[in-house]
Design a protein that fits this description.
Distance between the termini of chain A: 36 Å
Shape of chain A: globular
Number of strands of chain A: 11
Largest sheet of chain B: 7 strands, mixed
Strand content of chain B: over 45%
Distance between the termini of chain B: 33 Å
Helix content of chain B: under 10%
Number of strands of chain B: 11
Structural class of chain A: mainly beta
Oligomer: heterodimer
Helix content of chain A: under 10%
Largest interface: A-B, 26 and 25 residues
Strand content of chain A: over 45%
Structural class of chain B: mainly beta
Shape of chain B: globular
Number of helices of chain B: 0
Chain lengths: 111, 113
């Protein structure tokens, strides 16, 4: 079973617009991570936010975490065609022994 | 080249055959993982390893065998392949523990006929 569930499953926007993806999870976590996957490629780590953090930035990426709602969001600002990919959230369990991935959001950025 | 490499990238086999997918990393990361990726299921953890000679089951271990005799290698064996094992398999490594940042290989696409 998937710990994290991304929403929406697919998102299509114009270049320059912002893209927001959400992740909800079920059980307590020690961290939450976001990964990007280009078609036919492996996943690439984007950002990690710990359970005691509420917001984190990395370049055009902004991640928020609300542990009371068991949810996180990934915001990509000023999107580019090169941002077209699938984005996955992954949660680290409190036992510290497993990272569980959600089903992903497919983002298409039209030039 | 430095990094994490998987082989073969593509494999077609028949039901009942044994298949081994190889994974090699050059970072000396302690942790290594095998995930499978299927439409509708995202990525699911098959097995992971905290160090040489230490392995543990993930979410979907049935039908798979792993070994880790050397830190840099973590092969995944399907002892008797089934059609339900048709999938894309990803190897990953981490130097930050089992819930730290993962570095993924490019994947091995396996088709079982």
């Amino acid at each position: 079973s998937q710990q994290g569930e991304e929403d929406p499953q697919a998102l299509s926007i114009q270049e320059g617009e912002n893209a927001t993806m959400n992740c909800s999870y079920k059980t307590s976590i020690n961290n939450l991570q976001w990964y990007r996957q280009n078609s036919g490629r492996g996943l690439v780590h984007l950002i990690l936010i710990r359970s005691n953090e509420r917001e984190k930035h990395s370049g055009r990426l902004r991640v928020t975490l609300d542990t009371s709602k068991k949810s996180s969001s990934l915001l990509i600002t000023a999107s580019r065609a090169a941002d077209t990919a699938s984005y996955f959230c992954a949660t680290g369990n409190n036992a510290g022994n497993m990272l569980t991935f959600g089903g992903g959001t497919r983002l298409m950025v039209k030039p | 080249d430095a990094g994490i490499t998987q082989s073969p990238r593509y494999k077609i086999t028949e039901t009942g055959r044994q298949v081994t997918l190889m994974c090699h990393q050059t970072w000396s990361h302690s942790y290594m993982f095998w995930y499978r990726q299927d439409l509708g299921h995202g990525l699911r953890l098959i097995y992971y390893s905290a160090a040489a000679d230490i392995t543990d089951k993930g979410e979907v271990p049935d039908g798979y065998v792993v070994s880790r005799s050397k830190t840099e290698n973590f092969p995944l064996t399907l002892e008797s392949a089934t059609r339900s094992q048709t999938s894309v398999y990803f190897c990953a490594s981490s130097g930050q523990g089992s819930t730290g940042e993962l570095f993924f290989g490019e994947g091995s696409r396996l088709t079982v006929l």
